[in-house]
Every structure is written in C-alpha cells, then in structure tokens.
C-alpha cells in the first residue's frame, strides 16, 4: 500500500510554528487538561463524541473508581432530595419522577472498567451481552433518592433508551438490586419499524388524493424509527403529562435525558464522563 | 439582644445521630466537597443560590485566580472555534453569535476578588458603581473566539441582563478592551415599566368591550417588566430570528443565557462558580 499523501489544506508554513503556541490554528487546539475536557463534556459544550481522549483514560478511570464520581453524584442527589422534600403534593398520587437507567439507576462500571472507561468505541454486541446478564449494581446515591421519593409518595417512572428487547433483562436487573414498585418501565421499541406503522400504511393505501398520498408515504417511512434520544424521551414525557401525571423531577446522566419539553419541573444531571448519547 | 431560640422543627432525637452518618436527614445533607458543589452548580442542578458556601470561598478563589478557570474556559472556546470553522455560511451575512457580557466577554474578577468570590450576597449598588467604571478586563478566551468569528464572517450580538442605564458604560468597557464591530448591543430596559407600556395603556383606555378591557389591563401591568433572564434573553433571540438572523452559536456563563427556545444552534457554557442568575 502506498504511503498516503498528506494534504490537509493547511499551508506548509504553519508546520513551522510551535505545536503549543498560544495563538494560531494549532495553538488554539492545544490539549486542555482532562479535567477541563470533563467540564466541557458535563456542561453539554462537547457533543457527539465517540470515545474519551486516549490520554484521559487513566484520569477518567481514577475519577470513576475513586471517590470523585460518588462525591459528585452525592451533591446532585442531596439537592434532589432537598427539593423533593420541599414539594407540596396534591394527594392525588399523580406526581412522578423520571429516572434514566444506565449510569443513573444502575452503574455499568463493571463493564466499562474492562473497556477503557469509554476509551473504546461503544460496542452494541458486548454491551448488549453485559446488559442481558442483568448484573449491574445500583448507583447507591440514586437508590437513596428512589427510596426517599417513594416514602414521600412520588412515583418513580423508569425511562431508558434501551430497546424493548432488553425489557426482561432490565426489569430483572432493577428488581435484583432493589428498584421495585415503579409506576412504569418505558423502553425504546426494538425494531426500526415505528409504532403505528401498520395503521400508517393502511391509511396510505386508502388515500386517493395525490398530495395526501405523498405525505403519508413520507410519514410511514420505517427509518423514522431511528429517533434520537431527546426526541424519544421528551415524547414519552409528553405522553405521561397527557395521561395526567405531573413530572416533578427528572434525573439522568446525559443531557439528552434532561433537554426537550416537557423536561419536568426540575432536572438533575448525574456525572458521566465515559460516553455520550445524543 | 436575647439569644435566639433554636427551633428548626427537627425532633431532638436526631441531634444524637452522628453528623456525618451515611443515612438519615443530617447524613444526607452532609457537606460535599467544594469541587462537587461546583459540579452541581455548573450542570444546573443547584439553582437559585444567593452566595457560595462560606467554606468554599478559598476553593472558589483558587479556582478563579489559578489556572483552572482559564483552562476550563479554554476547553469551551476551543470547541466553539472548532464548531464555527466547520460551518458553511450562507454568504448573506445573516449568521450571528450571541455573547453574554459579565463573566463572558468581560471578567469581573477585580470586583469579585474584593467581595469573597461570591461569598457576599450580590450588591446592586457596589457592583453598579464598579460596572460604571467600565474597567473590566476582557476574558481572553472569549476575545479569541470573538475575533475568530469576525474573521469567519459571523457577526457578534451582545445580549446582557445589564439594564439600559448601563448602556454607555458597557459599550465603553467593551470598546476599551477590544470588542468592536458587533452587530447589536441588547440590554434590559432600565425601569420596571415595560417597553410599549404607554401604547398598551392607550389601547386599554380606547377599548370598550369588557373582556378585552380586563385582558389589556392585565397585559399593561408594569410589574411584568420584572422579567426573568431566560424569558428576556430567549425573547430577544426570537426577535433576532424574526428579523432574519440565524443564531449559529450562543455563549454565556449562566444556564439562563443558554436555555429557552430559540437557544441558538449550539450553546457553549463558560464556567462561573461565583454567582447564579435565574
């Protein structure tokens, strides 16, 4: 194989500048410390990243396995409980709190510790096999919030980007570590065929006017099922509100758990420097 | 003065528990490290706080004055510039980037270093006097972004919660440190009487049907001018879009700069552990 030609469109003269100068194109992209990379990740400035920076694997490992991750989680849950205790409930039992699953109710650290803490790209096959084991431990801070909310009379709703084919394993895992008595367990559909697709096709076939036919054909596209997390989760939260529930709180490790109306009255961002879900 | 009676509504028996136990009301509210407090602040979990925890004054001071604050800012701006350089512009000059002022274009560290880095409650009088000096230095990272955007052909729009009575001082400060050639400088109105109030009252007086009269009377209420930052800033961004601008980016140190549709195509959260604006 011939050596690839280097042509990134950058004038050669730039190559003579020091790599870590304070100005210029290269300087601007100088490495920031892993701690500042994490700041940009946790504040939703860095998006759509596939793996953590290779140089930060040790940093992220120390963060996750040492006390830092637990301490950050504790600060978030302390505030969530303090907020929940301040609420005046209606007494009609319609108040719910939305919980994400991965890195929220349960911790997948046993998996990620063996996969570079996010330094390896996401692998559907190996992570799927791990999820099917239903062996993930609870995130202790989230468990503390979960139990306190139940004692207060606020019902937990589990809302996860895991697909329906993981329903049994997910329910088993949650029950095994003590998450019981939730109001609903909502997962993404398992295939790329969206719910209502059959009735959509039926409507398409029964229409006669040309414009409506074209429009409904577009609406029926099975690939619409590849819905992003924000769209899926905010849609499910809207359904909860339409059903009369009041979402008083919403906790997750990804901004895609917490953005998109209706977000819930308050949102609580747990730490997760290992992966990004958009 | 008599000593105040201690009655915080907590049963006395709780006083016998260890202050830092892992369970129970006191344990749950045990102090988290200042670094974890900052995590909860920067991810919009902690809200409506008036001052930093007294025990964190030294921590926040070290964060702001040492390299950490600058390093976190650098990570955010590196990503913003990388994103801006990836954009395909229309060539019609309608792309704008929204900048907040305090702790975004300019740094008020000279003021906050003398006021406990947020350990003292916000003081309109002393901060107002400082702002009128128009002496705040530029945040160097934001200046780098500002200049790069102008070179790319993206127009800066300055959008601040400072009131109109600070327009002259703010413009003078921005110009003095090198922020020139912006498209607009948008500030909050100076009084509690909203813009359009006079015409609102005129419409109210000229209406005869009862329903409309009641409705317009409500709409004319001067206290509506006490608009929160999210409402004010998203309203101004909507006006920009209505005028044909495309907000490709939005940078600020407060979540109230970045939340509320239309947010802009991408948001960039600069660090600020010193104060909260809701």
**In the residues of chain A, how many domains can be counted?**
1
Separation, N- and C-terminal Cα atoms of chain A: 37 Å
Strand order in the sheet with the most strands of chain A = 3-2-1-4-5
Give the second-level CATH assignment, the architecture of chain A. Answer: 3-Layer(aba) Sandwich
The CATH superfamily of chain A appears as HAD superfamily/HAD-like
Largest sheet of chain A: 5 strands, parallel
Q: Regarding CATH, which class of chain A?
A: Alpha Beta
Q: Unreliable runs of chain A, pLDDT <50, ≥5 residues?
A: 1-28
CATH topology of chain A: Rossmann fold
- The general outline of chain A is globular
The level of helicity of chain A is: 40-55%
Structural class of chain A: alpha/beta
Regarding quaternary structure, what we see is homodimer
Strand content of chain A: 5-15%
Biggest interface and which pair forms it?
A: A-B, 34 and 35 residues
Please report the total strand number of chain A as a whole number. Answer: 5
Number of helices of chain A: 12
What's the gyration radius of chain A in Å?
23 Å
Encode the helix/strand succession of chain A as letters: HHHHEHHHEHEHHHEHE
Mean pLDDT of chain A: 85
């Amino acid at each position: 194989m011939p050596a690839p030609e280097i042509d990134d469109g950058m004038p050669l003269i730039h190559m003579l500048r020091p790599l870590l100068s304070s100005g210029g194109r290269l300087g601007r992209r100088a490495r920031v410390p892993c701690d500042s990379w994490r700041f940009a990740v946790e504040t939703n400035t860095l998006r759509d990243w596939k793996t953590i920076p290779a140089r930060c694997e040790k940093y992220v490992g120390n963060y996750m396995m040492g006390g830092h991750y637990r301490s950050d989680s504790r600060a978030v849950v302390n505030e969530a409980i303090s907020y929940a205790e301040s609420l005046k409930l209606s007494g009609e039992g319609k108040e719910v709190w939305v919980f994400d699953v991965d890195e929220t109710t349960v911790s997948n650290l046993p998996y990620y510790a063996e996969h570079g803490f996010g330094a390896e790209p996401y692998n559907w096959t190996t992570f799927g096999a791990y999820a099917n084991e239903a062996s993930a431990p609870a995130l202790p801070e989230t468990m503390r919030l979960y139990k306190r909310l139940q004692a207060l009379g606020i019902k937990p709703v589990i809302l996860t980007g895991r697909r329906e084919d993981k329903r049994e394993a997910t329910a088993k895992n949650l029950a095994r570590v003590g998450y019981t008595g939730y109001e609903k367990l909502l997962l993404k559909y398992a295939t790329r065929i969206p719910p209502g697709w059959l009735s959509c096709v039926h409507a398409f076939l029964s229409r006669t006017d040309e414009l409506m036919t074209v429009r409904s054909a577009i609406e029926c596209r099975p690939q619409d099922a590849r819905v992003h997390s924000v769209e899926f989760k905010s849609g499910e939260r809207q359904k909860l509100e339409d059903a009369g529930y009041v979402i008083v709180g919403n906790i997750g490790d990804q901004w895609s758990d917490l953005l998109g109306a209706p977000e819930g009255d308050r949102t609580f961002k747990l730490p997760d420097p290992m992966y990004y879900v958009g």
